DNA sequence: CAAATAACTTAAGGTACCTTAAGAGGGTGT
DNA sequence: ACACCCTCTTAAGGTACCTTAAGTTATTTG
């Protein structure tokens, strides 16, 4: 059951048998039905999540009530409201399951304990954060330089599996356009 | 001369005397005149930079020749084309000095060596990457939910010093709007 | 210090994308 | 099996922001 999360970690660091036991003792597995809110804005963001199976979405609701999708996480992705998890601030975003999902969660105290007792994880999370950072930076670049249509095609090319698992409305809110406009963009093709 | 970069590091990790010596032996100080291109697209991105004084700007030029500012870095910031530095890919972005600047550069081999010989730096760069990631994520959120005018005010509020050091045109290209439109936004006030 | 160059502004006309509305199709729950 | 709700689509009218152009003020350069 922990195979997938352990091989995710093994992509970047090698754990001894004892270190593996420490790690697995600090994470908790959970299965959550579809459309469950795992985190709500203004709540304390207590966990970092690894998606074993299923799909999650984090989104922001602005002062006008408009929803913007921050990120999707399908199998083998990590997700949470990172700023609030790391800085002990109330969450700014919502996190919900798109479909029934099995996740592993690490609480903040356990996250700190993990980094203390197995410092190798500093390296693991450095690489995770590095990748997340460069991915977000690329997204900013695309938002600044591409049209809505180009961003849609880039999204589908980059994340074909996610494009299949989520609704058009959710993709539109990730791209920063209305579902109506996405619909007109998609019409010409096929 | 290395005081500022060392106290930047001391914000997150404590170095012994020997570790400090290792670190300073791996970085090189440079003073660069204004408007110097430190990195160009398609070049190999060989260095990570810390800004001791002055100001740098990284930008992207898209297929239509339009320039988008990725980030500014003033005193005490780290900057490079992170994706290309870490993944040994040709640079996607340009990096230039806005004014005469003193920087410290770390080459890729020295960066790897630093992480190997002083593993504490894994923690330092984890925190650096974490902060960069959450900052970019907030920028994506603002790009998706705020109007151009709101983004401009948010930028000035968040980075008052940068707003003073760079041109309006550069701010416009960071916000994803034209200088002409920024000008009309600024007119009503004062 | 002049001359060139770049930054900033103003304004008119244009376009990418939004808002509102309404209808068709597909799940979901009772 | 019906009603309900949500997604997706289409279309008409609206707006935020762009393009082009031209003038003014800084800043750089010879």
Automatic annotation (TrEMBL), chains A, B:
Classification via Pfam families: cNMP_binding
InterPro entries tied to this protein: cNMP-bd_dom, cNMP-bd_dom_sf, RmlC-like_jellyroll
Signal peptide, first to last residue: none
Superkingdom, taxonomy of origin: Bacteria
Domain Cyclic nucleotide-binding: start-end pairs: 30-116
Protein name: cAMP-binding domain of CRP or a regulatory subunit of cAMP-dependent protein kinases
Biological source species: Pedobacter westerhofensis
């Amino acid at each position: 059951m922990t195979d997938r999360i352990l091989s995710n970690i093994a992509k970047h660091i090698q754990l001894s048998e004892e270190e593996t036991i420490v790690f697995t003792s600090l994470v908790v597995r959970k299965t959550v039905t579809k459309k469950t809110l795992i985190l709500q804005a203004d709540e304390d963001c207590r966990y970092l999540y690894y998606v074993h199976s299923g799909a999650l979405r984090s989104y922001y609701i602005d002062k006008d009530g408009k929803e913007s999708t921050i990120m999707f996480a399908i199998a083998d992705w990590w997700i949470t409201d990172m700023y609030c998890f790391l800085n002990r601030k109330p969450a700014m975003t919502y996190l919900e399951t798109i479909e029934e999902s099995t996740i592993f969660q690490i609480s903040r105290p356990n996250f700190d304990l993990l980094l203390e007792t197995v410092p190798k994880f500093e390296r693991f999370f450095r690489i995770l954060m590095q990748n997340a950072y460069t991915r977000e930076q690329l997204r900013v670049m695309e938002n600044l330089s591409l049209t809505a249509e180009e961003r849609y095609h880039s999204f589908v090319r980059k994340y074909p599996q996610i494009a299949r698992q989520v609704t058009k409305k959710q993709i539109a809110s990730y791209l920063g356009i209305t579902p109506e406009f996405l619909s007109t963009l998609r019409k010409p093709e096929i």
